[in-house]
Design goal:
289 residues, 2 domains, Oxidized Rhodanese, domain 1, alpha/beta, 11 helices, five-stranded parallel beta sheet
Length: 289
C-alpha cells in the first residue's frame, strides 16, 4: 500500500490507533502532523521537553500536555478540558488544519497522548490517532529518531464542541447510576487507604486497571477479542449501558476510551474523575479491603 493510500485508509477506519510500521510509512506524507506528548504523572506531574530535544521521532513537534487543551486556572488534578478559545489557540499554535492527520505518542502507557486525543475529539477534530505502543515501542523496534526540531506553522482548525464525549461533575451525579462506570486506576488506588476515608472509589464503579487493556510484554493494546473478554469479565454491563470512563483525574481513563473506541464504542470521559467527585465530603466514597 502506498503512503497516500495508507493515509486515506487510516482516516476512513474507526480505529484510534496507528502502528509504528504505519507511521514510518506515513512519515513524509503531506498533511501529517506528529506530536511528542511525553511526560509523567510522577511528582511533580510534568511534560518532558528535554527528552524531546535529545531524541524524538522524525517530524514530531513537542506538545506540552500540561498547557495545551487544559484549563490553566486550576491545578492539574482538577483542571478540566480547555474552553473553546483556548482550544482554538492550541490548534492554531500547533499548526493543525482541518484536513490534517494528527498522530500523538507518549511514553506513559498512552494516557497523556490519550488525553490530548480525547480533547481534540471533544473539540471536533476527528482526524487524530495515537501511536500504538508509543515511544517505547518505536525505539524497541529501532525505528528512526532525530534531535532536529520540527518547524510548526499556524493552523486553521476551528473547534466545535462535541458534548457527547464529556461528562461534567453535574452530569455524572445525574447519570452515573444508570451507566456502566469503569474506573481505570490500579487496584490499590481503587481500593483506597483505610487511614484516609476520602480515598477509594465512586460507589458502583467497576475497576478495570488501564494496564489490563495492554499487553505486558509489548505495551500494545490487546487485540479486539481480548479487549472484549476483559470487559465482559470485569464490566458485563458495558454492552447494554452507556459507559462513563473515570480514573483519578481524567488521564488513565482515556486508555479505556481508546480501547472502547477500538471496539466501536464511543464512551464518555468523566472530566476530573475521582479528584472532582471527592471534593464534596457529602458525596460517598467506597473502599474495598
Amino acid at each position: 500500500m502506498s503512503p497516500s493510500d495508507l493515509k486515506r485508509d487510516i482516516l476512513a477506519r474507526s480505529s484510534p490507533l496507528v502502528s509504528a510500521e504505519e507511521l514510518e510509512l506515513l512519515s513524509k506524507q503531506p498533511g501529517l502532523k506528529l506530536f511528542d506528548v511525553r511526560g509523567t504523572w510522577s511528582s511533580p506531574a510534568r511534560a518532558l521537553p528535554d527528552d524531546y530535544e535529545m531524541s524524538h521521532i522524525p517530524g514530531a513537534a513537542f506538545l506540552d500536555w500540561t498547557r495545551r487543551f487544559i484549563d490553566q486556572s486550576k491545578a492539574l488534578p482538577l483542571a478540566s478540558v480547555a474552553d473553546r478559545d483556548a482550544a482554538r489557540s492550541a490548534f492554531k499554535a500547533l499548526g493543525v488544519n482541518a484536513t490534517d492527520l494528527v498522530v500523538l505518542y507518549d511514553n506513559y502507557h498512552h494516557m497523556l497522548a490519550g488525553r490530548v486525543w480525547w480533547a481534540m475529539r471533544y473539540w471536533g477534530f476527528d482526524n487524530v490517532r495515537v501511536l500504538n505502543g508509543g515511544w517505547v515501542r518505536w525505539t524497541k523496534l529501532q525505528k528512526p529518531v532525530t534531535s532536529s526540531t520540527a518547524e510548526v506553522s499556524q493552523g486553521d482548525f476551528e473547534p466545535v464542541q462535541r458534548g457527547d464525549w464529556r461528562t461534567s461533575l453535574e452530569d455524572f451525579i445525574e447519570n452515573h447510576q444508570k451507566s456502566c462506570v469503569i474506573d481505570a486506576r490500579g487496584s490499590a488506588g481503587y481500593a483506597g487507604n483505610a487511614d484516609d476515608p476520602r480515598t477509594g472509589h465512586i460507589p458502583g464503579s467497576l475497576n478495570i486497571p488501564f494496564s489490563e487493556l495492554l499487553d505486558r510484554e509489548t505495551g500494545l493494546f490487546l487485540n479486539r477479542d481480548a479487549l472484549s473478554d476483559v470487559l465482559d469479565e470485569k464490566a458485563p454491563q458495558w454492552r447494554e449501558r452507556p459507559i462513563i470512563a473515570t480514573c483519578g483525574s481524567g488521564y488513565a481513563a482515556t486508555v479505556t476510551l481508546l480501547a472502547l473506541t477500538e471496539l466501536g464504542n464511543e464512551a464518555r470521559l468523566f472530566d476530573g474523575s475521582f479528584s472532582a467527585w471527592k471534593q464534596d465530603p457529602a458525596r460517598p466514597v467506597e473502599q474495598t479491603r
